[in-house]
Amino acid sequence: MPKLPAARSPLAMHLALALTFGFMPAALLPVLAAAAAPASAPVTVKIDNFVFGPAAITVAPGTTVTWVNEDDIPHNIVADDKSFRSKVLDTDEKFSFTFTKPGEYGYFCGLHPHMTGKVIVKAG
Ligand SMILES: [Cu+2]
C-alpha cells in the first residue's frame, strides 16, 4: 500500500489549515476584548477647592473624561489648544469630552487660570 500515506496527507493538511485559520481567531477574541476594554471605561476628574483632581490623567484613545464641579464656586474647563471648552459649571454640574487622538491636552479654568490640569491620551 504505497499510496496510502500520500492519500492521507491532503486531509492532514486540510485539518492543519482548519486549526490554524478556523480556531486561532476564536482563541484570540478574549485577548482583543480585554485590550479594548480600558478605552471605553469613562474617567472622572473632580473639581474641588480650586483644584482639578487628579490634575494629570493618562487615558486610552476613545476615552470619555467627565469633569464634575464639586466646589461651591463656579468653574469651567478650557483646553490650552481650544480643542474643548465647557460652559461655566455650577456646583454639581458636569462636562464630558471624548479624546480620540493621542497627545497631551493641557487645560485650565477660564475663571481661575491658575487652576490647571492635563489629559495624556496614549494608546495601550
Ligand atoms: Cu475655576
Model description:
This protein is α/β, with parallel strands linked by helices. Helix content is 30%, strand content 32%. It has two domains: 1-37; 41-121, Cupredoxins -  blue copper proteins (Immunoglobulin-like). The chain has one helix and eight strands, in the order H-E-E-E-E-E-E-E-E. It has a four-stranded mixed sheet. The chain has a four-stranded mixed sheet with strand order 3-8-7-5, with no helix packed on it. A hairpin with a 7-residue loop joins strand 7 and strand 8. It starts with a helix and ends with a strand. The structure holds copper (II) ion. Copper (II) ion binds at residues 75, 109, 111-112, 115.
Task: Give keywords.
four-stranded mixed sheet, single chain, 1 helix, 30% helix, Immunoglobulin-like, alpha/beta, 124 residues, binds copper (II) ion
The CATH homology group name of the largest domain: Cupredoxins -  blue copper proteins
Cα end-to-end separation: 57 Å
Strand order of the largest sheet: 2-1-4-6
How many discrete domains? 2
Content of β-strand: 25-35%
Ligand species:
copper (II) ion
Structural class by sheet pairing and helices = alpha/beta
Largest sheet: 4 strands, mixed
CATH fold field value of the largest domain: Immunoglobulin-like
Overall pLDDT metric: 81
| Sequence of secondary-structure elements | HEEEEEEEE
CATH architecture of the largest domain: Sandwich
Radius of gyration: 26 Å
- Extract low-pLDDT stretches: 13-37
CATH class of the largest domain: Mainly Beta
Annotation, overall tally of beta strands: 8
Total helical segments: 1
* Silhouette: globular
Q: Helix fraction?
A: 25-40%
